[in-house]
Amino acid sequence: MASYRALWKSSNVVRQILSRAPYPAQIAATTVIAVMTYWPLASYRRHSFYVMRTDAFDRFCTRLEQRFTRVQITDMLRAADFDDIRFSEQEPFWVAVAIKRQS
């Protein structure tokens, strides 16, 4: 867990810098990140390079990032009147499907 936190903190520093960088620098950096980080991951091998770069851009070029636990996501969905909440058991794990209660 400590290594995950260290990795997240260092990647968050990169995100804070890239989110304020000019757009051409963001594209160049997220292209490199996609090649060096996303492409080697088994869960990304079936995706196009466009998806990898877009995911890198979404992760590293947004000024606001909020992370939620599975419990927090479940609580938010229930508070919004969703039932039958199911999470993916494969990567990416935080994909959820829920059914809105009828009013």
Low-confidence stretches: none
Structural class: mainly alpha
Radius of gyration: 16 Å
* Number of DSSP-assigned strands: 2
The percentage of residues in β strands lies in: 5-15%
Secondary-structure element sequence?
Answer: HHHHEE
Largest sheet: 2 strands, antiparallel
Q: Based on CA inertia axes, which overall geometry fits? A: globular
Major sheet: arrangement of strands:
1-2
How far is the N terminus from the C terminus?
42 Å
Helix content: 40-55%
How confident overall, as mean pLDDT? 91
Number of helices: 4
Task: Give a short overview.
Helix content is 53%, strand content 11%. The protein is mainly α.
What can you see in these coordinates?
The chain is mainly α and 103 residues long. It is built from four helices and two strands; from the N terminus they run ααααββ. It has a two-stranded antiparallel ribbon. It is globular. The model has no long low-confidence stretch (mean pLDDT 91).
